[in-house]
Amino acid sequence: MALIQGGVFWLSLAVVAVTIVGVAVGRFPLLRMNRATIALTGAALLILLGAIPLEEAYAALDLDTLTLLFAMMILNANLRRAGFFHLVGRWVVQRAHSPRQLLAFIILSSGVLSAVFLNDTIVLTFTPLVLEICRTLKQRPIPYLIALVTAANIGSAGTITGNPQNMIIGVASGMPFLRFTGYLGPVALMGLVLIWIVLLGLYRRELAVDRFDGVPPPSVQAEPRLLRKSLVATGLMVLAFLAGMPIPQAALGAAALLLISRRVDPERVFAEVDWSLLVFFAGLFIVTGSLETLGVSGQLFALMQPVAERGIVSLSLVAVVLSNLISNVPAVLLFRPFVPHFPDPTQAWLTLAMATTFAGNLTLLGSVANLIVAEIARRRGVEMGFGEYLRAGVPITLLSLALGIAWLLWVL
């Protein structure tokens, strides 16, 4: 942008860099700030510096993605209040007769549900359930917690609604829901099997018990009417996805259906919406949008284009590195303006979706879902250490990435 020169230009770039680093770390020393406040403050500073005019900041907001994320939060809040996720936990306990079966059912339920209802929502709801199940069955919870979160991350890669970065990719690419899932759903399912195999190898002694005996299923308080209504809304949303309706529109319709109620106080539903996540996304949209108004997009594209031209392997490796340096959502947002100009945009979008999601399993800091599980477990007296997680995260990530790359090379 011609008006942004000299010191203001470099100061604006410094604000962008500091904001992205703060988002990656999750906080600043001595300040009580989280990712949402860091992103919003960075966006505000860039607007005040003139790096991006207020009108262009409004235009940088991806309202389709924000609408989809908000609508899914409404849907998840109703399912949670209806007791749906606790019913799934009861189903797991009733059918798991050995540690290996319990591990498999946790991986399956976490992975499949994350593909529909957002991975962060699943780990937030299921972590207390897994801890309670392990306490009842007298099992060490660490293998099952690692299974829960790695399956949630890998399973979420299979659909556009599985995680925030996929939502961005789905909206930006305009790819139909069924086509996206047709490409990435199979490799996500294969990744779930891979998790089970790796964890069986790492924790073979702890998972060697032949059978659980006489384990009572946990009691569940469900709201049948709200449950039926929530499942109907979810089913209609999925049918709309499959019919080709725009994804934000279908999700918003399901959310609106659930907000028509005589019994549920809307304030109780809105209280469960993660407003900070919406603020975080809005701030990041403005921060990354400022790179275009600052005139540095061309240089970034020049750096990224050779990577894309080398194909799936090189783009996957760059996506993995960026995801672990600055987190997966900022990584996708940095690529978003340039992917439509790549030689094969569809290949690039799908590669980014797979690689940035699978990369989240590498370390305990690799994804928000990992941190949610670790924090809930810590509050309940279970310490999931960085080193122990790494012991499972590294092989799961490397093997799943190799599987994902091989799969995309075959189908694309």
Automatic annotation (TrEMBL):
The keyword Transmembrane applies. The chain crosses the membrane at residues 7-30, 36-54, 66-83, 103-130, 180-203, 231-260, 280-303, 315-336, 348-377, 389-410. Belongs to the CitM (TC 2.A.11) transporter family. GO terms for cellular component: plasma membrane. InterPro entries: Arsenical_pump_ArsB, Cit_transptr-like_dom. It comes from Litorilinea aerophila. GO terms for biological process: response to arsenic-containing substance. It is a multi-pass membrane protein. GO terms for molecular function: arsenite transmembrane transporter activity. Its main location: membrane. This is Anion transporter. It is found in: Cell membrane. Keywords: Arsenical resistance, Cell membrane, Membrane, Transmembrane, Transmembrane helix, Transport. Residues 32-359 form the Citrate transporter-like domain.
